[in-house]
Design a protein that fits this description.
Helix content is 41%, strand content 10%. The protein is α+β, with helices and mostly antiparallel strands and 176 residues long. A four-stranded mixed beta sheet has the order 1-4-2-3. A hairpin with a 4-residue loop joins strand 2 and strand 3. Helix 5 packs across helix 7 and helix 6 packs across helix 7. The two termini are 35 Å apart.
């Protein structure tokens, strides 16, 4: 059996084309964080494309590979790809599913991590701002004791579809 990850190829980034259906957008802070990750870690995830070189997943990494000289120069204009033999309908479905599956960060989890980084690893607030791509206000809220209690967030009732998978609750497709 061969999984897509077993077939990574390095190709010229200019040979790829953005799809026209991707609803995902990235804010400048998140873009800058992605650039920082790529500059410090390198490529950790390939771009997924179809046999027509249309990007299914990895558009922002692809743009960075073309727009940021340090990345473009380091990899000589090449990007890692996995080619999936799928039609446009499947590509559209994969694009949406992959973007949605990446999830969102819960404030509880982010607060816990921020406090560990400051208290156990002696990171400064300024380092957190830089490394996490956050504003000073965001970091202050994460490090405060009241960020989660101010609105009694644990008391709020959400649609079952909004509970994080990590909370251990099991729901069927209907949300039950």
């Amino acid at each position: 059996m061969s999984d897509p990850i077993d077939n990574i190829e390095w190709v010229d980034s200019k040979s790829l084309t953005a799809n026209h259906w991707n609803p995902n957008r990235i804010l400048k802070a998140e873009h800058d964080l992605l650039v920082h990750n790529m500059e410090t870690l390198g490529w950790v995830q390939p771009i997924l494309i179809n046999s027509n070189n249309i990007i299914i997943d990895g558009f922002h990494r692809w743009r960075i590979s073309q727009d940021i000289n340090s990345i473009k120069d380091k990899y000589e204009g090449k990007v890692p790809v996995v080619i999936l033999n799928i039609d446009d309908r499947e590509a559209m479905l994969y694009t949406i599913r992959m973007n949605r599956a990446k999830g969102v960060h819960s404030s509880n989890g982010m607060q816990k991590i921020a406090k560990i980084l400051v208290n156990e690893y002696q990171m400064t607030k300024e380092q957190l701002e830089y490394e996490l791509g956050m504003s000073s206000t965001e970091v202050e809220l994460l490090l405060s004791d009241s960020v989660l209690t101010a609105r009694n967030s644990k008391e709020w009732k959400y649609n079952k579809a909004w509970y994080p998978i990590e909370d251990g609750k099991k729901y069927g497709k209907s949300g039950e």
